[in-house]
Records
---
Amino acid sequence: MNSSTREPARWEKLGCVSRLKTRVFEVLGVRYRHPGRETERDFVVVHAPDWVNVVARTPDDRLVLVRQFRYGIDEFSLEIPGGVMEPGEDPVAAGLRELREETGYAGTSAVLLGAVHPNPAIQSNRCHFVLVDGAVRSHELEWDADEEIRVLTEPVARVFELAHAGKIFHGLVLNALMLFAPKWRELAARPDPGRPV
Amino acid sequence: MNSSTREPARWEKLGCVSRLKTRVFEVLGVRYRHPGRETERDFVVVHAPDWVNVVARTPDDRLVLVRQFRYGIDEFSLEIPGGVMEPGEDPVAAGLRELREETGYAGTSAVLLGAVHPNPAIQSNRCHFVLVDGAVRSHELEWDADEEIRVLTEPVARVFELAHAGKIFHGLVLNALMLFAPKWRELAARPDPGRPV
């Protein structure tokens, strides 16, 4: 019988081959060897650049949202702005760039909220989350080809309602909102919620 | 200039071809036509069965966790149990099956916490989240080939600490914990936390 109390082994990566290259990710076949069993196996890994998602709060406590048609689900999706990081790009800088390009908003301050691995089982990259405060519409839009985005804002409390009601259903967007929630509870407890000091 | 206040169009799916088939997903090339622009474009979609992740709570308010080596990130990851749903399988039944096979735990009740789309931009499937209560170790393990899992339990409050500290970093596992949080707050407010009525 397998033991469930023994620590799992660190498999040794022997090498990898490209199985498919697309505009947004590459699928790798990665060969691993188990150190104890001396068996070799091939696993499939989706390799993509890191991603960034942005919680952008306006001075009147609304969040910037984007509504897009999403080809993965063949349906519309309500999300926060985000995109693909450039090689070597800082997550906060990338977040501010994506926010500006996608929505035309810029902020007065930006901090990293955290990061997750979207799927450690089959995907190598991370998704970073950036909080931008004092977000106001100040730039022209710079959409990529095929981007067609409805930009809107909703009060923060309404965004959490939309998440709880399943109207926001993108797992990574929900990760961002979870990381923002404790900061929002602090902000909402201000003596005058309309005017941050 | 692009308008950001106009609703985005619903692209029309014209057809798709398989670009790569692996054990865990298929990559499709999907051809779409924009209704207004009359342009056609190919998009890439990762197609996989739905997934299920399980928040399994023991009678003494601990959660069942699994620690595995994950090939996607070439690193260990601390997660809740989960796996791939069978065609036509009910999410709750799938969650109970995965929990039993992966950890040997069974519960006294199980409910659906919710579901997300892991990545609507490039991925078609959903991940469902199931809450199992009264979870106790009662079965032999039935691991798939290559599965090597450390099964452990931690107090619920400790699991949330691990998530906040970035020790649990799987985006979908964090989605599950976010959905479980309000239920836990209710449970934690019980007069006698050790004995649910």
---
Amino acid sequence: MNLDTLYSELTLKTKAKLALVVLDGLGDLATIAQGEVTPLEAANTPNLDRLVARGVAQGRMTPVAPGITPGSGPGHLALFGYDPLEFQVGRGVIEALGLGIELKAGDVAARANFCTLDSKGLVTDRRAGRIETEVCEELCGLLARKIRKLGDTEVIIKPGKGHRFVVVFRGKGLEGPLTDADPHREGEPISKAEPVNPKSTKAKKTAKLVADFYKAALPVLAKKQPANGFLMRGIAHQPDIPSFEERYRLKPACIAVYPMYKGLAQLVGMTKLEGTHTIDEQFERYLDEYDNYDFFFIHFKATDMYGEDGNFEAKKRAIEEFDAALPILLKKRPDVIAITGDHSTPCALKAHSWHPIPVLIHSDYSGSDKLDRFTETGANLGSLGIFDAKYLVRFMQANARMFDKFGA
Amino acid sequence: MNLDTLYSELTLKTKAKLALVVLDGLGDLATIAQGEVTPLEAANTPNLDRLVARGVAQGRMTPVAPGITPGSGPGHLALFGYDPLEFQVGRGVIEALGLGIELKAGDVAARANFCTLDSKGLVTDRRAGRIETEVCEELCGLLARKIRKLGDTEVIIKPGKGHRFVVVFRGKGLEGPLTDADPHREGEPISKAEPVNPKSTKAKKTAKLVADFYKAALPVLAKKQPANGFLMRGIAHQPDIPSFEERYRLKPACIAVYPMYKGLAQLVGMTKLEGTHTIDEQFERYLDEYDNYDFFFIHFKATDMYGEDGNFEAKKRAIEEFDAALPILLKKRPDVIAITGDHSTPCALKAHSWHPIPVLIHSDYSGSDKLDRFTETGANLGSLGIFDAKYLVRFMQANARMFDKFGA
């Protein structure tokens, strides 16, 4: 029997409130160079400590699979309980979400960037001399004004940072993925985007659309040296993901600040609660909306940013900032709280990593693992052990007593 | 390669004796309210402590899957090494086993209960006013006398507690599962039991049999207000489970007190050693039968019962009672001992739960995890880690040196 089917059959509707608090990139390494402590271990976290003293279960989560470092997409899909190997989100879609484009079912999105072409149409610089963001914005504006539609398909063009932008095709009967319109090296012409599945008539239509887009757009850019061409990659449609509410019988809300995470939450059908900027405001918003939703996804970004910078002190302070705000959330204690990250972002790596993420669960039924604090090293000793991140929502549901007994 | 096939190919026949001692519902939670100890941690267990001092490996087991709470059926199938998602036992079968009915291959069993019908045949009370067990016994006796056979199929009717009873059909060419003959709400007629797999001709025959049973039985009850009707649920056949002896090359015996566990052991072909009532008697019986079997499944019920009652002190005392009896078992020390539960039954929940079960293995090759005692918190740190319960028998076989090396 399929496990998701079993979970679904056993799921009961209850009145429980569940809060998943994600400190992006939380996990870190206790390196010798950093005095053998992690930022979470070095941080002063009296409020987390108090929560631990009230009884929490701890463990560590493998984001995707042993040794695999996830991007934000797979990292969050796993946290939302979707197997990131089964539900893949194209890079174009992730990029569009990151720019705050509200994708609709069936939209096809591509990451694009300006490049330089020679007189024969060969790519001489894949990044168009890394033009300034302002130039990119101007060129995108020009393209957007000239190309609003192709046939009956709407075209949405939105600039990103530097030479990067995103193209979204919104119409009927479209589908990805396509191969990249990018030779991935210089000295060659722009490749033709082709359906990855040659049997898909929708993908064929989409490939034709991309070709038409090039036909319309290249003349517009012809004299805009060094950005007289562009490459398109990760051309994919918004995947068909079962909605969070149907899957878990929980009405979900997302309280995030950055567009990417709002977009990922929207992909699974969460309602975005907008207008917050700080973790204090996010927790206050949770209090305001407590009665309106069952599941709250609260996303805190700073831990990841400072990890990427390799800034141990700043990551530690970000954790302390989060800790100082925690009592706001606890004013209306949810039945189940999980606190974790979507992946590790160790300062020593200045990048996302594969290292297991510390996680805690607090509920009336979590028990206590008798640990003093919530730390990477402590979580290694917890009763949750090391488990795949995609099961976290299932553990939260179990703690909310949302599962009937399996068998007699 | 299929893992079960690999195990099977590597299995050697040895003279080792293996004992699996199951303290039903053993696992518990160290809640703050209970002083942050579990019954196992609070109990005085000098004999278990001595066993630990002689060297044990500890760990925790996931009964079925993350967050899933098993009934006794899936819990024990997993302990016997059968994937509980692959080998499912219908509720009717479990109920029949619980009443001590010796099911045979091909038997179809249903849980049934008396209900009240109005003059139009609509269900007005799904539990027939919760009639007394004595009334149920009388009505079952009446039905059993009137309906011994339907065609060439034998019909066995056995009363349970209150309004509950079990019906078993014993004949040729029968198969479940069927949908319930139960509208699951009042104000509707008794539903027709239909094959879950509409292509199964055996299930069709069984559905016809259920319909015939209603035709014969309802007139018998017509004037027996408030129990003038009955509902049938979980209609299923005894599943085809590969025998324990073939699978593991171990001749197994079951020393249990309660019918349910004897029945589950019988499902996989264990010999039931009857006539014991206390854990002392069960261990004495093990000594008597030591030479006659290779694998002993010894089941202790009290831990689960007191967990279900939420009675921490009594669960603790039950563990102490077990501990006091343990030296009897050790008079003829088996080559491999495993001590664990089939699931957790935390006092704080007063119910079965999904929490991982502490487990210990003692053999000449178990090594020592250098823990002082056998406890939930200690087991978190053990060398067995957290593993799926279905692998316990494999670990026991390995400790019995029953597996040849895989590959050169």
---
Amino acid sequence: MGARDILADWGVREFRVIDRAAIQEITLGASILATGGGGDPEIGLLWTYKVLDEGKEIVMVDPADIPDEIQVASPACLGAALVLTEKPPASEVINLAMRKLERYLGRPIQATIPIECGGVNSPVAYAAAGELGVPVIDVDGMNRAFPELQMTSWVTHGVHASPTVSVDDRGNVTVIDTGEDDLLAENLARRAAMAYGGISWIATYPMTGRDVKGSSILYSQSIAWAVGKAVMRARREHLDPIEELLKSLLRERGVEGFRAFKGKIVDIRREFGSETTKGFTLGKVIMEGIDEYRGHTAELDFQNEWLNLRVDGEVRCLPPDLIAILDSETGEPIRTDIMKYGYRGTIVLIPAHERMRTERGIELFGPRHFGYELDYVPVEELNG
Amino acid sequence: MGARDILADWGVREFRVIDRAAIQEITLGASILATGGGGDPEIGLLWTYKVLDEGKEIVMVDPADIPDEIQVASPACLGAALVLTEKPPASEVINLAMRKLERYLGRPIQATIPIECGGVNSPVAYAAAGELGVPVIDVDGMNRAFPELQMTSWVTHGVHASPTVSVDDRGNVTVIDTGEDDLLAENLARRAAMAYGGISWIATYPMTGRDVKGSSILYSQSIAWAVGKAVMRARREHLDPIEELLKSLLRERGVEGFRAFKGKIVDIRREFGSETTKGFTLGKVIMEGIDEYRGHTAELDFQNEWLNLRVDGEVRCLPPDLIAILDSETGEPIRTDIMKYGYRGTIVLIPAHERMRTERGIELFGPRHFGYELDYVPVEELNG
């Protein structure tokens, strides 16, 4: 039985077939929305290409079309992106995690849902869907990337990460079942990743179709796809990729993004070594303005993702709103795990999805959660 | 169905009924063999008394009498004994761990096996057996206590800790399945305990009856019982408890123990705070000799258990051989988690069981494993 049979079973006749070009566009868009985190798109892409090259089909379904009672889950990588770059996955690891989750649940997984927009975790959900012969649903749990397992619209809408299965590439398995305690699930999953050597592959957030519709960021894949397409077109047609990106967001999500800065990286302070920093890419970056921003300074903190932007000491963006640093010519995102002194880029700010901006969302992944003594102020107010 | 029905099913007609007096003697003996670790016997005893007071029966069976194909497992506490003293268990936690292990295995657990000789983990295996209505088998995995999950005769004889279920008293569950990688199982189980707040309750070492016979320390419970009885009798009859203990060991195990020192604790250096010390009671103790040892100095390192004894700088006992510091009047063990400046005691050394002294055993829990640049020399040679 393949993904098309499952869709036929559900009475769904419309779906999108994801080919190499599509997954490339989706992954580019997702890595832009990943706000500096989400890992190396090459890793996720190569894996997805391999699945397609083996003749497996990948299809995406509209969340409005899925039955309420189906069982779905999210396949993902959890750990420090920096480690992942040195230790790319074997193709069996996510399959093992998904199979072990099915066994623990006593139910088969009938579709995958990406956990976030990220260079790794977006395509991984497609690759896993292709491997398992199930569809991908056009949703995710963030419409951005975030460093911790519990930082999802799923949790803010009452759906939990447990049970989560965490595996490594040697076939080791950890099943984490903490009921409604998603912070403890994150804590255990992070420790398992560290015990494995820095990186783990998880099958997480098992939920029903009803939960998907009630708690996900709906059409998150379409948004990433539109963003990726816009930037690709800009490259082909020599248009301003930042401009095309902002237009695509307005068209697809109805939200306005902001250009906040243009500059080059003049200082990077990475934090290593302490227990809290293990399992994350952590630190701070200073950018010196160029062109119309000459004489100004931008300062960004990061924990896998960009967290907070200050321009000339003034706060311009706070979590969960999105910060992307993009190459001004290509629109390619500059990532926290690989950025270097001298990199140049334009900082773009994007309002978080409304399902991430609930009171519970601000509590779980707003500024105070990340240690800032600041109330959350929406990015459109900070840049109005 | 109760433990007696299970035994009848196996065609076993001989077994020992464990009452309050028996469990008290076994636990005293086990806490002496626990070499300074193993936790507070009061915690394990109170739990076992409660099970008996509820009218549940606890019976112990000879390992020679169990069928080869039965499924057994070890219920235990894993974490820092110091935390346990502050956070005694709810009675449901071990049951939850055992039930979750049964579900993961897809087979019921038909008997319990204590993991070690310890004030907590010995009686816990009896309490769990009583709760579950299954017998305890007269074996364990160490015939002493040791700080880490993989430090068992089971591992040295090819039986593995996976799958291990780790739970906390709020009902959180972690299933650890690392195949033959017992060091990683320990690493994951230790991290789970830390995530839970320092203490976890585990169901571990699922194995068959055949494995029990081939890899356990056979009659470990009888040895602990004999030691406990001897010391109790010494107290009642005002005999030297150390003398009675050594005689009981010679009788029950056919091994000779040694009096190595008598003194009082004059310095305790505990290590806290670093990641490696979390989840353990770690440090070093200095004792000043009294009576015939006046003018001499003993130095002991500990990691939950006493690891290494040096008298006047000369090594006198190395792991896996046993070091006990016992109150000279009562035979009560002095534990690493509660010892204080000024405590007085006699140091007794006991050869480890031969199933712990294999080449693989010395590799897994000999001096070099604990960071000593020393080859293992049996305690009888060091004190010959």
---
Amino acid sequence: MKTAETIEDVRASVAEAKASGKSVGFVPTLGGLHGGHFSLIDAARQVCDYIVVSIFLNPTQFAPGEDLDRYPRNTEGDLAACSDRGVDLVFIPSVETMYVDGALTEVTVKYLSDALCGRSRPGHFPGVCTVVAKLFNIVTPDKAFFGDKDYQQAVVVKRMAADLNFPVEIVTCPIIREDDGLAMSTRNRYLCQDHRRQAAALHGALELAGEMIRRSHPPAAEVIEAVRRRLADAAPDGKIDYVQVVDTQSLRDVEGTSGPVLVALAVAFAGARLIDNTVVDSATG
Amino acid sequence: MKTAETIEDVRASVAEAKASGKSVGFVPTLGGLHGGHFSLIDAARQVCDYIVVSIFLNPTQFAPGEDLDRYPRNTEGDLAACSDRGVDLVFIPSVETMYVDGALTEVTVKYLSDALCGRSRPGHFPGVCTVVAKLFNIVTPDKAFFGDKDYQQAVVVKRMAADLNFPVEIVTCPIIREDDGLAMSTRNRYLCQDHRRQAAALHGALELAGEMIRRSHPPAAEVIEAVRRRLADAAPDGKIDYVQVVDTQSLRDVEGTSGPVLVALAVAFAGARLIDNTVVDSATG
């Protein structure tokens, strides 16, 4: 496995791989790799010949006061895990490599970026879109892999890639969960033991929502109310940022739940803001 | 010469050219080709093996009430001229090909887009940046060619390409002028005979500015005043949008003229809004 810290090194390695006819799969990450990331790498390995992982804790997708400064870093462990998983190239640039002095360009996706997490994190998705556009231009992958845990991110990035005609296929992969249902996340490492136990309720509440919708597709408001009650009971220390039932494409709130809907939530335990979601289609079960 | 109306056709032709080791030069245009465009094609031909011209009257860079509906189109003549000049591929997409339903993504370059023409055309440069990003991803050129007549556009596109790490070199080419000094522009075709005569004063006023700056590098305000007086005298029907003396990189107003400066102006004759500029460096003459 190679590691590259400069854009030139990435381009040279990828060009070499492409010249030998290899297809390039790309998994962009913030580091702090876990089972969710590993599933993306495995998925990439299944369908691509040359696998690139980026480890870049992108500051522009964090607002002042968010957890950029304490975000868990584990570069040595991340590199070892990538090597074990058959990654060919890890791109691990500095902030200065990614953002030259005087950079002024921003890529934004209207509406989709303002929904759900965008309400409490207004600069987040512009930061994500801009860095993903940069990484696509640096890595020039054939396919890029994103996890469904960050469902809104996947929707936004798909829209961005299509709208700007990036010659990159966006592949999304299922949420990977701990044994008790908690969606894997780098931020789970922030949780104290008690909060870690309560955090399993996020998935439990989403399962409850799925059951309700599949059983009788009630109004979204009823589903939201039930999810909030379950969270209040089972995760009393969790501060709910949002619980929403939205269209799976537009991410706009829906009133009914008879079509396919996304039930999404964000809950903060002390400084650990966790998100989770489920897509429920009452028609297909 | 090939023509392509679909993105797939462009990609196939460019891939074939690249596979045979050819470098790709790209000249994006709105159509209505003139000597300025031809100079860009010639410049591309000098340094690239495979030349792609796009002809796309991009609606998103025009505001409501601007001249999108009457912008001179001459597709047959444009194609003949491209063929004569040795262009390999003309990409001539429909609006529907370039903008799918539900597109939501915008590429913006802060500050630089708000200066000069951006003040009276606030959506213009976001429209330009977004379509250029799209075209770069469709054509994947090695080099792209832009004219100095649209100096601000070149600065903005260079910033965008660098910030987003597009693997494209932006090449700028000198302004091409008519015999009386008027900068070549598709919009010159709007001018009646009398206004066409007056319009030569734009270049005359910029030459005056250049002489003043080279002679004694006076305060920018004096240069602007002299340019405005000259325009009032020699182009009395021209409505001045702006006359500015700005930094050549930041495009911010300067007070002194001892460094290299850009003198830029926009003047409208009836419905014909014309722009012109000159870079003056009093140090080097």
